[in-house]
Amino acid sequence: MHELSITESIVNMVSDEAKKRNVNKVTKINIVLGELTGFEEESIRFYFEVLSEGTPLYGAKLDFKKVKAEFKCRSCGMIYNRGNFTFKCPYCGSSGVLIEKGKELYIDSIDVE
Amino acid sequence: MEIKIIKDVLEANNNIAEENKNIKDERKIMMVNIIGSPGTGKTSFILKLIENMDIPCGVIEGDVASDIDARKMAERNIPVVQINTGGACHLNANSINKALSTLDFEGGILFIENIGNLICPSDFELGEDFKLAMANVAEGDDKPYKYPLLFSKAKAVVINKIDLLPYFDFNKQYFYDGVKTLNDEAEIFEVSARTGEGFEVLAKWLKKKYSEYVQGK
């Protein structure tokens, strides 16, 4: 549900950018999306098709670069991704701590004609 | 041709959140954004907490529909504004901006009861001083593992309905480990809004946070 307002932002921001640069057709929007955000790729695609109609963005491909959350083990220092229902280090089984990765949501670039 | 942009998608919301920060700071308000699932006991928690506070408190009530919770606050003469989102699953900075313009309150703590949801409200900054994440014994000990963003951002984590511990398989260690992995600095409080257990400790902590806030201004 909250993807609607996010997709509106994406459409508005890219439309402004296209206007500023006299671009008639945007072919691809490259988005960086962190694993920890609550945003769902398929919902953004769904709303995008509706909201981009009549804009230079219509038909553009949405490319999501996913960023995984990373943890650092407090004991062995290894950097790791989480497992299901556990945050423990897969190498030594100790506790880790979240490092600042996985909360990203930004438009990295656009491809234009 | 590729054009680099690098723009935060939440920029528009975040700009209004900054504006809210200035408004509430001018009015010496410390704003606490309370996020928890439906039925976790947010409203009873706020009512019990305010009973234990000796500084002025106000409330912004967020709900999809109805003013049931706001009426409970108003009956106790607590300054309150109700926001009905009409379907949206979270409050955003703009709705708080409007609520602040109608709420006659200054010099105290303003609690925002966000929409009952552990996912969407975590992504939207409102201009608050900090987030308070709520879970309860009956809904299980796995919430930090299932909804990591909320617990990674919250300064305070509350486990409510602690009086139900004898009846549920709630593994406190598992819950604490999850929170501490996501957020080493989070303070965890155990309370029961039904019996009042734990509120004295939490109220004391909040008062300390408020005096630090006022001194910092």
From TrEMBL, chain A:
Binding locations of Ni(2+): H2
Among the Pfam families in the record, one is HypA
What GO molecular function annotations does the UniProt record carry, in alphabetical order? nickel cation binding; zinc ion binding
Chain ranges passing through the membrane: none
One biological process GO term for this chain? protein maturation
User: What are the protein's UniProt keywords?
Assistant: Metal-binding, Nickel, Zinc
- Keyword Ligase assigned: no
Q: Which residues bind Zn(2+)?
A: C73, C76, C89, C92
Question: Member of which family?
Answer: Belongs to the HypA/HybF family.
> What PANTHER family does this protein map onto?
HYDROGENASE MATURATION FACTOR HYPA
What function is annotated for this protein?
Answer: Involved in the maturation of [NiFe] hydrogenases. Required for nickel insertion into the metal center of the hydrogenase.
The protein's name:
Hydrogenase maturation factor HypA
Please name the source species. Answer: Thermoanaerobacterium aotearoense SCUT27
* UniProt lineage: Bacteria, Bacillati, Bacillota, Clostridia, Thermoanaerobacterales
UniProtKB/TrEMBL annotation, chain B:
Q: Which GO terms describe its biological process?
A: protein maturation
The entry's keywords: GTP-binding, Hydrolase, Metal-binding, Nickel, Nucleotide-binding, Zinc
Q: Which organism is it from?
A: Thermoanaerobacterium aotearoense SCUT27
Which InterPro entries does the entry link to?
Answer: CobW/HypB/UreG_nucleotide-bd, Hyd_mat_HypB, P-loop_NTPase
What protein family does this chain belong to?
A: Belongs to the SIMIBI class G3E GTPase family. HypB/HupM subfamily.
Alphabetically, the GO molecular function entries are: GTP binding; GTPase activity; nickel cation binding; zinc ion binding
Residue intervals passing through the bilayer: none
Q: What is this protein called?
A: Hydrogenase nickel incorporation protein HypB
Domain CobW/HypB/UreG nucleotide-binding, residue spans: 32-189
- Superkingdom per UniProt: Bacteria
Would the keyword Zinc-finger be found if you checked this record's keyword annotation? Answer: no
User: Which Pfam families does its entry note?
Assistant: cobW (PF02492)
